[in-house]
Amino acid sequence: QVQLVESGGGLVQPGGSLRLSCAASGFTCSTNHMSWVRQTPGKGLEWVSSIYSDGRNTTYQDSWKGRFTMSRDNAKNTLYLQMNSLKSEDTAVYYCTRGEIPLDWGQGTQVTVSS
Fold first, then answer.
1. For 64, which of 3, 28, 29, 68 could close a Cys bridge (C-beta 3.0–4.6 Å)?
2. What is the pLDDT of residues 16-44, one digit of tens each?
3. CA–CA gap between residue 55 and residue 78 (Å, rounded)
């Protein structure tokens, strides 16, 4: 049974940092296309970053490069999203997904950036 469980969200001030985690079970992350996707009321779904099965990593918007870093711990079968220099517009629910066309989603973790 495939399961994705996100954690690490919360309330943070602008300029702060958070590290999101996604614990996967029922499959092996390193052999799958994995992504972080966020959802905001105004912009809908946005693909933030992906790691491919061959280890390549991409972050989709230039404004996120240098601020958001996705990584994978194969031993723990866990994904991470390190987010630095957070801005109010980063407020969203962040989901971990499996598949290039995501078929499996976690429950999401809320990130709120506010002073």
1. 68
2. 999 999 999 999 999 999 999 999 978 88
3. 14
